[in-house]
Amino acid sequence: MIDLERELSALLARNWSIEAVLTAPARGTNNLMRIVHDAGEPTGRPLGLIRVYQNLDHDRVIREHRLLDRLAGAGLPFRVPRPRPAADGRTVIETEAGPVSLIDWIDGSRPDLDRPEALRAAGRALGRLDAALADVPAEAAPFDWTTPDLALAGIDDDRIDALVAAGLAAEQVAWLRDHSGPPPRRDGLPLQVIHEDFGASNLLAAGPPTVITGVIDFEVAGRDLRANELAIALDQSGALDGPDWREKSRALATGYGEALRLDDAEIAEQPLLIMERTLGTVGWRTGRWLAGHDSLEDVAERIEASRTAERWLARNAAELVDLLRRGLADTLDR
Length: 334
Hints:
Strand order of the largest sheet: 1-2-3-5-4
Largest sheet: 5 strands, antiparallel
Shape: globular
Distance between the termini: 55 Å
CATH superfamily of the largest domain: Aminoglycoside phosphotransferase (APH), C-terminal lobe
CATH topology of the largest domain: Aminoglycoside 3'-phosphotransferase, Chain: A, domain 2
Strand content: 5-15%
Oligomer: single chain
CATH architecture of the largest domain: Alpha-Beta Complex
Radius of gyration: 20 Å
Number of helices: 10
Number of strands: 10
Helix content: 40-55%
């Protein structure tokens, strides 16, 4: 087994001429990541993050970096990750552990999305991001979720059989079999590249009042239904959690609508898209489990979260659609 800290430090010295002190981030990620400090100022502002990709191969990382380069010049009011070229110009270095990149530091902290004011700011940032992504060609993003790429987040018989063999609870297995297979086609809804993973863990902010300073982690960005972006944000932001979910979900939608308008058909599909997203996280986590990156318990937790979402949506779907329609109409800046 490689000594990751030593290997990454040597990689930084060799490719970026940085003598570094590395520290682990406070929160877990889907990739191996370390905060990079200049060894001469180990308590000063970090230089960046060194990231070992576990979910993307070299070509997909290159596409992510091309997408980030386009967005850096799009005039967004917040920063996106900026891969720092190595001495030879490469932004991706192949290693035994996987593709590695050095990402410049973005100031800010994780926003508190329990507050409607922060959710509105987050929604506004997401709408502006999607407006900037609207003209990006599919081939410029890491994934195209309208193609067989979708199977990477799918639940099929082979994956379920593997979970059965590993000892997944029979009740969860039966539920998965009832919910397996690809999502239905939705011809006629707008398609574009979207972020695909918008939530508090992928935002940086200052304030209060909340100002979004950065949107990060574009590794699963890809062509998809435009409407999926809001559904993912509703699911991952916590907007649907707790007794104040009505105020929070409307705030997120209002912020989004200040930058981008959705069609009524896209709003009507939100409950089904939210459910499909939760199933997609089960499929994605299963893929990571099969690759040895996650545990069976991680998959089981995602299944329970999806089942909880299904029960919540059965009670609240119609009211949610009505609130989103009103929230998207409460705009200050069309």
